[in-house]
Design a protein that fits this description.
eight-stranded parallel β-barrel, single chain, 3 domains, TIM Barrel, Immunoglobulin-like, five-stranded antiparallel beta sheet, about 650 residues, alpha/beta
């Protein structure tokens, strides 16, 4: 046995909080030393009296492979000859209180399938990636001026085998990728894949941050899945939890008998919301652990971004029943984002934050937290409250639709209809809609139309695309049998077409984060609950007119002001028969009436469908014709009136 000493620089950087490749120092690494194959083990256990490596190779007896403390700060190392890949191991830790703990490796690359909890010696190197085109193209684009439509999913309950067991990562690639492409999503967001003991924590209470859960296969199979996504033009985001972790005996909690990864002081150590322990974000070694972890997923798994879970819970902590700002968390998040963007400026760093903390998506050098996106929880809460209200009463909460536009450009927002809204008795999106069977589907189509046309990027949780009736059942797969029912098939057809229009329509995403991309036409029709607005692209003639009717009433010859005096085609109507609607559509070209209305230079008269969204696109005409001359004349008159 040979003791391996991390360099003085490694030790210094780790305890300084800036060892960003800690996975190269800690954990289990296959090596050849002096002609002998074996495995080098290193772990940080600052309060331990003694640490040993135990496993099948020594009958789980720590007397044979005691590690040597190679730094005063508690780094322990040992090279064990003839220990190869797939060996099971743990750390046996003698505490100052006389207890003996068996701990999984915090830096393990692979783990046993639950309910077993041992770490596995694993060679993480060697996968041959074929996503060079994806990586190259990603660098050429500005993420802010591109479509972003995210499919949030839970691997364990998206689809299961007939016997109820899980598909592995490779098998999921064959089934999930064609489905995502068919539904025109640009990215998938996978609920946490870090190793976790309890299925129903969904990965949010982890033990192995460097270990993709073995429920679905091994690391190379996950690499294959992500590689195939990239080769098919799909980005992959990982739900990531740097705020807290579970308290299972084999995990990070009280790692050497005393607080190591968690805060020392109660009650800030305890996360009473989830029964977990909070990471000590003021500890430099925890910075090294977590930031290394983010870079690890980027380097070895080519992850395109992270949805950072529970940012609100990190920013504010419960200090004796009083919630206070956690300055440690602020500093950590700023540091995390700076390091990640230095490594790759094209990564998506998305904050799941329900607070009114300012400048979440502003750069750190401007005083921000440094994320580049934030979930718009306010929009989500308001629009769902509005949709759940009986239609005849929506006029009394009209502002729940308009309010989001008052702050839509204060951050770079993603509009989330996530798993959190369809679980724990909250009902599915479809079942939130009031009214009978037909009205539920009509209003869900309307909600999706409003989602896709409102400023901000998009996220939908799995099952929503075909209108799952039941809320998410995390121990089963989705209710795929619903595709045998007509209204669900038609809902799915509608979502596919809506998402396709979103992807190919620059006005719906090109100016998502600047006020120039949106203009109200009529935001004040409270009595009829009809809203109309314009989405604009960079080019002057790139625009769409959107009209949403949140009641069941049909209106004919309804006047809508338009910003461009051209004829309009209705490119989508959620009430079309082919989507399960009543057929109140505008089949013919809508002719522009050269008379101002809604403070616009001209208007159209159209049919307004019940519980419907209509998207209108101007018909482009050749320059210099009579129609253009009339348009210029009308626009000139309107501008002149506006100056008086």
């Amino acid at each position: 046995m040979i003791v391996i000493h991390p360099t003085e620089l490694d030790v210094h950087l780790f305890h300084e909080g800036s060892l960003y490749e800690g996975y190269n120092i800690f954990g289990a690494h296959l090596q050849e030393i002096e002609g002998v194959q074996g495995t080098r083990f290193s772990v940080w256990a600052p309060h331990a009296l003694q640490v040993s490596v135990v496993g099948d190779f020594n009958n789980w007896d720590g007397k044979e492979h005691g590690m040597e403390k190679v730094s005063e700060e508690g780094i322990w190392s040992l090279f064990v000859p003839h220990i190869g890949e797939n060996e099971l191991y743990k750390y046996e830790i003698h505490t100052i209180h006389g207890n003996l703990l068996l701990k999984s490796d915090p830096y393990a690359f692979y783990s046993e399938v639950r309910p077993n909890t041992a770490s596995v010696v694993y060679n993480i190197e060697g996968y041959q990636w074929n996503d060079q085109k994806w990586l190259k193209n990603k660098k050429k684009k500005s993420m802010y001026e591109e479509p972003l439509s995210i499919y949030e999913l839970h691997f364990g309950s998206w689809l299961k085998k007939k016997d109820g067991t899980f598909y592995n990562y490779r098998q999921l690639a064959d089934k999930l990728i064609p489905y995502v492409l068919e539904h025109n999503f640009t990215h998938i967001e996978i609920m946490p894949l870090i190793e976790h003991p309890y299925d129903r924590s969904w990965g949010y209470q982890g033990t192995g941050y460097y270990s993709p859960t073995s429920r679905y296969g091994n690391p190379q199979e996950l690499m294959y899945f992500i590689d195939q996504c990239h080769q098919n033009g799909i980005g992959v985001l990982l739900d990531w939890v740097p705020g807290h972790y579970c308290k299972d005996a084999h995990g990070l909690y009280m790692f050497d008998g005393q607080p190591v990864y968690e805060y020392k002081d109660m009650p800030v150590q305890e996360n009473s919301v989830w029964g977990t322990a909070n990471f000590d974000l003021g500890k430099p070694e925890v910075h090294s652990f977590l930031i290394s972890n983010a870079l690890f997923w980027m380097k070895y798994y080519h992850i395109d971004g992270f949805r950072v879970d529970a940012v609100a819970n990190m920013l504010y902590w419960d200090a004796g029943g009083v919630f206070q700002k956690n300055e440690y968390a602020v500093a950590f998040l700023q540091k995390l984002n700076e390091v990640v963007f230095t490594e790759d400026p094209n990564v998506l760093m998305i904050a799941e934050d329900s607070t009114d903390w300012p400048l979440v998506t502003a750069p750190v050098y401007e005083g921000g937290l440094g994320f580049n996106y934030k979930w718009n929880m306010g929009w989500m809460n308001d629009i769902l409250a509005y949709m759940e209200c009986e239609p005849e009463n929506r006029k009394f909460i009209h502002d729940k639709v308009t309010f989001s536009l008052l702050y839509a450009y204060s951050e770079n927002f993603i509009l989330p209809l996530s798993h959190d809204e369809v679980v724990h008795g909250k009902k599915s999106l479809l079942n939130k809609m009031p009214g009978d069977y037909w009205r539920k589907f009509a209003q869900l189509r309307l909600l999706y139309g409003y989602l896709m046309t409102h400023p901000g990027k998009k996220l939908l949780f799995m099952g929503g695309e075909f209108g799952q009736f039941d809320e998410w059942k995390d121990l089963e797969d989705l209710d795929w049998n619903l595709q045998g029912f007509e209204m669900h098939r038609l809902m799915q057809a509608y979502y596919k077409e809506l998402a396709a229009i979103y992807k190919r329509s620059k006005p719906l995403w090109q100016l998502d984060h600047v006020q120039e991309g949106f203009q109200w036409i009529d935001a004040d029709n409270r009595d009829q609950s009809i809203f109309s607005f314009v989405r604009k692209g960079v080019q002057k003639d790139e625009l769409l007119v959107v009209v949403c009717n949140f009641t069941e009433h049909v209106y004919t010859d309804y006047k809508v002001g338009v910003p461009m005096c051209a004829n309009y085609n209705e490119i989508l109507n959620s009430d079309a028969v082919e989507y399960g609607g009543s057929g109140q559509v505008n089949k013919k070209k809508l002719k522009t009436i050269l008379k101002s209305f809604h403070n616009q230079p001209c208007h159209v008269e159209m049919t307004i469908p019940p519980f419907g969204v209509s998207i209108l696109r101007p018909v482009k005409t050749r320059k210099g014709n009579k129609k253009d001359d009339q348009e210029k004349k009308v626009r000139s008159n309107v501008i002149g009136r506006g100056k008086r």
